[in-house]
Amino acid sequence: MEFRSFDDLKNIAFKKEIKTIVVAAAHDIYTLKALFEAMDEMPLEYVLVGNATKIYEIAKNLGKEVLEERVFNSKSDDETAFKAVELVREGIGDVLMKGSIKTGTLLNAIVSSETGIGKGGVSYLSVIESPNYHKLLFVTDGGMCPHPDLAQKVQITKNAIDFLHKLGYEEPYVAALSAVETVNDKMQETIDAEELENMSKNGDFGKCILEGPLSIDIAINKESALVKEVESEVSGNVDLLICDCITTGNIFTNGLVYLGNAKIAGCIVGASVPIVLVSRGASDDEKKLSIMLSLAVN
Q1: CB of 171 within 8 A of CB of 207?
Q2: Over the stretch 267-292, which tens digit does the pLDDT of each residue have?
Q3: Beta carbons within 10 angstroms of residue 83's beta carbon
C-alpha cells in the first residue's frame, strides 16, 4: 500500500473508530480552533488539559461548549505536561497534542524514564504532498534532533519505518540522503548512510528497501540515476527520506511548502502514541492534516 495524497490518508482516518486526543495546554485559541475544525470532519473526541477558565472562555468565543468532565485544570506548564502524558499512559487518550506550552517542557514529560510514554527515543516525521511528486513523501528528522550521531539516526530511521508499516506500507522505499551518492571519508553523513543501508540489508528495520548515501535528485528522479549511472531500486519511487541533520530536513520541507506549493503534516513518532506538535505559526490546514495523520496510524 502507498498513499498518493492526503485524501487517501483521510479515507483511512475517517473509517477508524472514534479516537480521543489529549491536548496539553489547550488554553490557546489557535489550538482549539484547529481541534474543533478537525472534530467537524473526523471521528474525534477530546480531553483538554490546562487553564480551565481560559479554555471555557476561548471555546465560548469560538461558539463551542466544552464538557466539564473533559477538562482538567492545571496551574503550571510542568503540571500540564505531566497530566497530559499521564492521561495517555492510562489509556484515556489515543493521541497527544501540544498546545500553548514549550516543546521542551512537554518533551521532558514524554521521555521521562519513570512516567513518560517515550519507548527509547522520539523523533519528528513530516509528510509532504507535492504537486511535483506522484505520492506522499515522508521526511525525517527536520524537527527534533539537531546533529544526530549514528545511534540516533538508527532510532530515527526505525521510528519512521515503523510508522509507515503501521500505515500499511509493506516495504517502504527509503533513501538516506547526502550531497553525493558515494562514500567519502571526509563526509560523515555518507559513512552513516552506508551503515544504515547495511543494517537494513540485515533486517534491522524490518521489511524495507533502504539505500544510502543517495543525493536528493537520484532519490526523487529515476532519470538522474540513469544519467549518473547509479543502480537504485528506490530512485524515482522513494517513500521516506532520512536527512542528515535537522537543518537539512527543516529547510527541505519548508522550502517545498513556501516555494513549491506543497502541503505538509507532521507528528512526533517513537512514543506509545503519535504526538501532534506543530508551530503556532502553522496554517490551520497543516494542524488539521497533522491531527488526521495521527488518527490514520492508530
Answers
A1: yes
A2: 999 999 999 988 766 777 888 899 98
A3: 19
